[in-house]
Amino acid sequence: MKSVVVFESMYGNTHEIAEQIAAGLESIGPVVLGNPAQVPATTAADADLLVVGGLDPQAPSPPQREPDADTDQRRGPHVSPGI
Fold first, then answer.
1. Range of the domain at 8
2. Residue 34 buriedness (CB in 10 A; 0-12 / 13-18 / 19+)
3. How many distinct helices (H) and strands (E) make up the chain?
4. How deeply is 53 buried, as exposed, middle or buried, from its count of CB atoms within 10 A (0-12, 13-18, 19+)?
5. How many domains does the chain have?
6. Backbone phi and psi for residue 23, each to the nearest 5 degrees, phi listed first
7. Is residue 27 part of a domain?
8. From residue 78, how far is each of 4, 11, 33, 73, 83 by CA, in Å?
9. Residue 72 in contact with residue 66, Cβ under 8 Å?
């Protein structure tokens, strides 16, 4: 059985899961693993099993931390340029 695992991953988590799925499927036949740019449509169309994983466009973004009033962790202490 030929399997194709296609994924999109922003932070690497979906990529890691896709690799684990592909590794598990190797016991039953050849597996093609890649993102949509790497896997031709004809390869996906010829597969017996197609697994697709990706980003959820409806999912909320991670909460953004408000900078501390006295210190922004990224830039150090706030310095006023004056008037």
1. 1-32+49-55
2. middle
3. 2, 5
4. middle
5. 1
6. -60, -40
7. yes
8. 51, 30, 47, 10, 15
9. no
- In this structure, is residue 41 part of a structural domain? no
CA distances to 1, 12, 18, 39, 73 from 50, in Å: 11, 20, 12, 11, 44
Q: Which two tokens stand for residue 10?
A: 């922003």
Cβ count within 10 A of residue 25 = 19
Answer yes or no: is 22 within a domain. yes
Cα distance between residue 19 and residue 40, in whole Å: 18
Is 10 inside any structural domain? Answer: yes
12 vs 4, higher pLDDT: 4
Provide the mean pLDDT of the chain: 82
Binning pLDDT at 50, 70 and 90, where does residue 72 land?
very low
pLDDT mean over 45-70 = 77
